[in-house]
């Protein structure tokens, strides 16, 4: 009986994180997007600090490590980059290193779940 509980817990642990990976598709049209994003000039203005990873396996949960996908059907989220801050659902700042990625405004974390 304990063995079954451990199997279930391991299964839930593994798949709870896999659902939050951030494979992102940048759509060309606003109506195709799940989230409208604006790239800010300064880190303090951002809701999320994003690091663009080179490989899909480098995405880890919902912490701002983004891998951009070429096809929308393979992505977890579709985003559209808007021209003005007031149009955005989410403001991001692109960081230089992966360890800098993360949420600054956790109230908006639901946008990428």
Automatic annotation (TrEMBL):
Residues forming the 7(1) septoil knot domain are 22-104
InterPro entries reported in the protein's UniProt record: Septknot
What name appears for this protein in its UniProt entry? Answer: 7(1) septoil knot domain-containing protein
High-level lineage: unclassified sequences, metagenomes, ecological metagenomes
């Amino acid at each position: 009986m304990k063995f079954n509980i451990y199997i279930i817990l391991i299964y839930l642990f593994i798949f709870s994180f896999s659902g939050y990976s951030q494979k992102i598709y940048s759509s060309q049209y606003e109506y195709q997007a799940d989230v409208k994003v604006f790239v800010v000039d300064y880190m303090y203005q951002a809701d999320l600090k994003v690091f663009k990873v080179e490989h899909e396996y480098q995405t880890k949960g919902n912490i701002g490590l983004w891998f951009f996908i070429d096809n929308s059907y393979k992505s977890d989220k579709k985003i559209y980059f808007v021209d003005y801050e007031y149009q955005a659902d989410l403001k991001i700042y692109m960081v230089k290193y992966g360890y800098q990625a993360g949420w600054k405004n956790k109230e908006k974390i639901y946008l990428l779940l």
